[in-house]
Amino acid sequence: MTTVEQPEPTGPVAGRTAKGPAPTATIDVDRSDPAYRTWLKDAVRKVQADANRSADTHLLRFPLPEHWGIDLYLKDESTHPTGSLKHRLARSLFLYGLCNGWIRPDKPVIEASSGSTAVSEAYFASLIGVPFIAVMPRTTSAEKIRLIEFHGSRCHFVDDPRRMYEEAAALAVDTGGHYMDQFTYAERATDWRGNNNIAESVYQQLRLERYPEPAWIVATAGTGGTSATIARYVRYMQYDTRVCVPDPENSCFFEGWTRDDPRAASDCGSRIEGIGRPRMEPSFLPGAIDRMMKVPDAASVAAVRALEKAIGRKAGGSTGTGLWSALKIVAEMVAQGRTGSVVTLICDPGERYLDKYYSDAWLAEQGLDIGPYAATLDEFLATGAWPG
């Protein structure tokens, strides 16, 4: 099923990363050296210990009328030590890079990121004592930049988000470091069959609920790694759950999925930080996804503000993109007389975006009118009917 809410963007095809390991300078470490192996074992232990001492994230209820017979849950990934869903990804990427021999003592790790992955990777780089450089758009929120620098890492800014990949790869060669390349390795680094991945965690937390197997899981896509993990796990475990991926404006994922076009591209970056890409990323797996929606940015902002009214929590714009789509799915279920559960994600905290999604001045500057979308949500939550 395809839902179109806004014309998909088009644009020239951006450059793709090469297959295989991301560009790295000549390796100058003897991997049989006892000192290196001692460092490696200690680094892996520290990263694994982070997971061991971190409790699982909460599954929150979004209040809906009881008589609808539908439960909506939000997996609160903002409670990770670095405050976002990307903490899981960064941990997996560091273990992947360490065990592959790509991350080495005293050599920098470089990442192309719109912010949250870089915050989490900066944390893990500090944990194991290697330098970290985040290549990111100049428009990244000031709070994310502050958090990256708080962990002792450096930000390298680009004016065109499509150039992040090239800049990161070049920095890896120039510094002798390793380009982590989350957009290629996100779907490979995570164990999608289980091992307490996000999908397994959701099902474990739902096991005592009245609808333990959700009808839908809604997951936005930046790298595509989370949606790939969830969709693969659902199929592996033979569940009937469907997976929906909402896509923001200025992202090509929706176009690539609907047209089965791996070369789909957008000519500018997403306003919703952390999701949407100007090219079809290697970790985005269209074939694993059951449905996509195109969500206007103003709808995403209206949804995060509705979330704050409903549960008293601020969240980032990507959470709003997912929540808007989840609520639309709930509306369809109500209209069809179906019961069940729907799950979406709180990706990161809204305090990182007070100067954006919670700023009326920013909305005016961007030409975004959230009024009609806020009215849609208010009417739906009051009546159970989706306007229009």
UniProtKB/TrEMBL annotation:
Residues 57-348 form the Tryptophan synthase beta chain-like PALP domain. Keywords: Cytoplasm, Lyase, Pyridoxal phosphate. Gene3D superfamilies: 3.40.50.1100. The keyword Transport does not apply. Residues 1-27 are annotated as: Disordered. SUPFAM superfamilies: Tryptophan synthase beta subunit-like PLP-dependent enzymes (SSF53686). Its EC number is 4.4.1.1. Its cofactor is pyridoxal 5'-phosphate. It catalyses: L-cysteine + H2O = hydrogen sulfide + pyruvate + NH4(+) + H(+). The modification N6-(pyridoxal phosphate)lysine is found at K86. A cysteine desulfhydrase that generates hydrogen sulfide, H(2)S. The H(2)S produced by this enzyme modulates the balance between respiration and glycolysis, and contributes to redox homeostasis. Probably eliminates toxic levels of Cys (which can induce oxidative stress). HAMAP family: Cds1 (MF_00868). Belongs to the cysteine synthase/cystathionine beta-synthase family. Cds1 subfamily. PANTHER family: CYSTATHIONINE BETA-SYNTHASE. This is L-cysteine desulfhydrase Cds1.
